[in-house]
Amino acid sequence: MPTLNERFEAYKKDGFTVFEKVFDEQQMQSWREKHAELSAANDGQTWFGNTLELAPKLMWPAVSHPTILEFIEKVMGPFVQLDNLTLAAFPPMEKEKAEGRVSGWHRDRWAHVPYTDAYHRPNAINAISYLQDLTDEFGPLRVIVGSHRKPITMEDTDRAIPHPDETLIHMKAGDVVITHNGVIHSGTPNTSGKLRYFFSIYYNLTWLKHTDHHTGPHTQQLLEAARTANNYQHMRLLGVDEQLQPRCNSGFLRSDEERWEEWATADREAIKEA
Ligand SMILES: O=C(O)CCC(=O)C(=O)O
Ligand 1: which of 136, 142, 181, 198 to mutate, judged by most atoms within 8 Å of the beta carbon? Predict the structure, then answer.
């Protein structure tokens, strides 16, 4: 098992890291069942955003998962909010139609094409898990390793075909890949004959807008519980960052990582146990 610092170094270089077995079968089954329920109630729709509001009890343990949050606060600092929580399923397609195709190369929301090969803190990161093993039939994740630090661009015609520099990642059900939003990636068409589930917890910096609304009654209830516990980390996830003003104007004359660690420690110490 790599240490957190080793992971962070690999993430800076490659643009992603995979945490194994973060979610268990019972959790994944409850998400598959929720997907089926939502799909049945919405004319067979397969893509759902705002799923924290739709299923707060099932989703909050994933959004606030300590393993994920510890790593992303190391990457982004204690400035992390939920941008959107997406539960989706890609329907299967015929093998002949999928031959030689990828789902679509892209960088993620809030990214930009890098100007230099320097590492920069991402504006957003994606914590993706798949609710089944990504075999060749279900369709592996494809990544252009290090592309968050390369000014790679692509013609529209090249977006749907394999890339010479791609790496295929056959993740297991319940693993979580945490990506830098600048890393170019794509899914692979699903030829398994079954649904290919995709669960994306997308986080961004607290001074950006968020895509999910966070105003629904269930999300507001979670926010109230976080306020009562004085849990700033959880409040930030739900769009409220009470320390933003001093922390975003700190003078920036000490290393970011040292400051971030100090602030994260202060946040932990401020929590009132119920
Ligand atoms: O299908 C996949 O494996 C990746 C999908 C993805 O990256 C996206 O929808 O942003």
Answer: 198
